[in-house]
Specification:
The protein has 69 residues and is mainly beta. It has a single domain, classed as 3-Layer(aba) Sandwich (Ribosomal Protein L9, domain 1), CATH 3.40.5.90. Helices cover 6% and strands 29% of the residues. It has one helix and five strands; from the N terminus they run E-E-E-E-E-H. A three-stranded antiparallel beta sheet has the order 1-2-5, with no helix packed on it. Strands 3-4 form a two-stranded antiparallel sheet. The longest helix has 4 residues. It is globular. It starts with 8 loop residues before the first strand and ends in a 9-residue tail after the last helix. The relative contact order is 0.21.
Length: 69
């Protein structure tokens, strides 16, 4: 029997980041590939100083995701 891989789950946090849970490949703007596991918060507001990861800046700028609807 073949091992089943855990499905990656992406959760949208209201007025916050995307939480990616599971193993996934991230390819950055330079083409560098990284395999990440566990829970990782990815920026959704566009203002993080640690892109593509969330650094909490959405709190300081009062990011409002109602424009996404």
């Amino acid at each position: 029997m073949e091992d089943e891989k855990k499905m990656v789950t992406i959760t949208v946090v209201h007025n916050g980041p995307y939480i990616v849970d599971g193993e996934f490949k991230l390819i950055d703007k330079d083409g560098t590939e990284k395999i990440l596991t566990g829970k990782n918060a990815l920026c959704r507001c566009g203002h993080s100083h640690h892109k593509p990861f969330c650094d909490g800046t959405h709190l300081a700028i009062h990011f409002d995701d109602t424009a996404d609807k």
